[in-house]
Design brief:
The protein is 22% helix and 25% strand. The chain has a single domain, classed as Rossmann fold. With 223 residues, the chain is of the alpha/beta class. α3 links the parallel β1 and β2. The protein is globular and about 70 Å long. A seven-stranded mixed β-sheet has the order 3-2-1-4-5-9-8. A two-stranded antiparallel sheet has the order 6-7.
Amino acid sequence: MPSFSRMAGGDPNISFQSYDCVPCLDESEVQVTYNHRYLLHVGWAARVLAATNPAEHVDIGSCSYFVAIASAFLNLKSYDIRPMDIPLPRMATGVADLCKLPFRDAELQSVSCMHALEHVGLGRYGDPIDPYGDIKAARELSRVLAHGGNMLIVLPVGRPKIAFNAHRIYSFQFVTDSLFSNLSLKEFSFVPTDLPYRFIKNADPASTASEVEGAGCFWLTKK
């Protein structure tokens, strides 16, 4: 701190008091780090939305940073089981239960639900305990999707298990054959857990079977 002050040569625009000192001693990384699974999957979803360019998009339970940024280029409604207020243009927020969505059958042309479905029914976010909560939520999402509409789903994919009460991990086959058997898969991409950080577009589903837990990115449509 004294050296910094001396280097300023007494410049009144570069001065501070000792009580303003806030040491940050462990941020001199050689490379910027980030939660790659969360950053890369929202980057994927934003690119899909930029390509499909829906008149309106509805998100349920995804990362708040994703919906805030996506609202910059499309009209967006964001729902969560907990109240959320994001005061930005072209964006509205509300409260919704994934197991009982407030939409008519086949009402929504564009929907996303990313890293939310795996929590439903485990009580982590104040929701009722229900072993079949994720299955009920998947049925609701399919119900409200319009024919010809697009749905973006991101889930932990790898060796299946329930990590109570944090989340579930799914196999690729369970997602496509059980959770969303009535929808068609347009794209499957994957963010592995191992280094180096990678985003695998149009990934081979078989390659995910040996993963402990990666981010499976499913672009689904309803015929």
